[in-house]
Amino acid sequence: MLESSPLTAGEIMTSPIVTAAADTPLRVVIRQMLTGGFSGVPVVDAEGRAIGMITEGDFLRWSEELNPKARWWLDMLADGHELAENFLREIKEHHALVGAVMAPGVVGVSAATPIRDAAALLVERHVKRVPVLEDGKPVGMITRRDLVRAMLPSV
Length: 155
Fold this sequence. Notes:
Elements: H1 9-12, E1 20-21, H2 26-36, E2 40-44, E3 50-55, H3 56-78, H4 85-95, H5 98-101, E4 103-104, H6 115-125, E5 129-134, E6 137-143, H7 144-151
Parallel strand pairs: 1-2
Antiparallel strand pairs: 2-3, 3-4, 5-6
């Protein structure tokens, strides 16, 4: 159905979108995702160019990765090792930022990309969303839901 569609990414993308900087606290992004009803956001640099993505899946993988580390720290404390408060705070602050969790690198499409190509990209990359980029800056997002919605007129 999408193969013959004349629609482009720019015509079906969700816009405007929320973005996050690498130094954004995770709790801020999680709150935005939950209240906004979306499952991922592009991570941008100071100029607004996409440098990565952060998704619900990244949060889950990250929390699984931290479990062994957390157990190690608990073992150190249980063994009577006293860890400096500043050191613990640094560890907590570093791991509580988007940059510690995000998937670096972004594969996006332009607004002129045919939706069949955007759909193929989602399938090939095994992702649920792809940002629409203009000069490297996210201007919209295409999700699987957007693609399914685009199929409705032809069903």
